[in-house]
Task: structure prediction
Amino acid sequence: MSVKEALYNSCLGIVNERQANIQRNFTGIQEAMFSETKSSAGDKHETGRAMLQLEREKLGKQLAEIQKVKEILFKVDPTSEAYQGCLGSVVYTSHANYFISISVGEVSANNSTFYAIATNTPIGKLLLGKKVGDTITFRTQSFVIEKIV
Result:
């Protein structure tokens, strides 16, 4: 398995796990809302239901966000070769290694550490369109692109 395929699979696993956690929380709130019975303390009941409803809406938004992230990740072809910084490229620099895909942070593949970053992040924007040998300056630190896959 190539480095790019390993990174892609790691990112997909992280996103799927986040989605499963949110879905479990969402299901738990749904069950709590349906199982809650009206008590003699009616105001407490209504307040509790309102809070559960707000939490359910928040989780619904998180699920929608996760779906958007997955759609971006599905645009990455882990078998393709890249010759410049673009969505799906693996960029090795003199400072750190990056997988331009989605923002999930530090990911390991083939005994190396990479940072999975989105194209709209500050470092992602700097890497887009760059080629081997180009120098990038980020927060007063310069580094050279050594390899792109």
User: Anything to note?
Assistant: The chain has two domains: 3-74, 90-148.
